[in-house]
Amino acid sequence: MGIPHPIPYQGSKRKLAEIILRYIPDDTQRLIEPFAGSAAVSIAAAYHGKARQFLLNDLNVPLMILWNRIIHQPNDIATGYQYLWECQHGQEKDYYTFVRDEFNRTRRPDYFLYLLARCVKAAVRYNAAGDFNQSADNRRKGAVPATMRSHIARTSQLLLGKTTLWATDYREVLEAVHSLDVVYLDPPYQGTSNGRDGRYLAGLQYDEFIDTLKSLNQGGIGYILSYDGNTGTKRYGKPLPNSLGLTKLVINAGRSSQATLLGRDVITYESLYLSPSLITRLDASSQLYTSLSSLPLVSAL
Description:
Helix content: 25-40%
Number of domains: 2
Strand content: 15-25%
CATH architecture of the largest domain: 3-Layer(aba) Sandwich
Distance between the termini: 36 Å
Shape: globular
Number of helices: 12
CATH class of the largest domain: Alpha Beta
């Protein structure tokens, strides 16, 4: 049935997860995602047995409440979603607006899941007050309840009893990292998230983030970082300093869906960075050579 994917989320690494997993060492005890989002990498890692434990964190509290419900009460959240999905028939646009207003008032996780399934490009947007304000994609009604229930149930089976959930600043999460952990960092693109941005509850400060990476290096922590990329001639993000000693891989992520909508055929490339300690662990098991040589879509820079 493939890897489940219960939360539709713009920027999800679902399509790239299988490539990212190649760089998780075989001795990994725990995989940590400080910017969890849809947790696509952790779900894929659980599916393939790449880690024994998982720590998912996101500053978005309603998102982490939704994750808690998916993992620990899968039938309840699936039933709540089914009720909302069935109630929308014949009034999809108005019903979406009603649920959005109710979510902003209550922060209920079933409302949030419905909004993510119905909103434009599965893209979360917030106003200055922190309320969800993305519009509905009126061309679709969201995943049918049976499909959503299956994704939720299978995800719960993969993560139940193995997963710790946090909703705090990413730096606090990284204070709890150990040498046999691997951290997968998928922060907001630095080039799009300075200051107030409706896509994120908080931006990412460049200097602060670089200092955090330096601390991870000093602590000998293995991490994988999805940080920047480019679509055609458009590039995202200020370059990372060479002093970090990171190994950069460029991944062909396929055609840009946004460019396709505008009638342009443009390829998106995403950058993946491997920390020095991670390279050492992969080298020790010859896993690095196997990973690089078997992936024609990846080039090292």
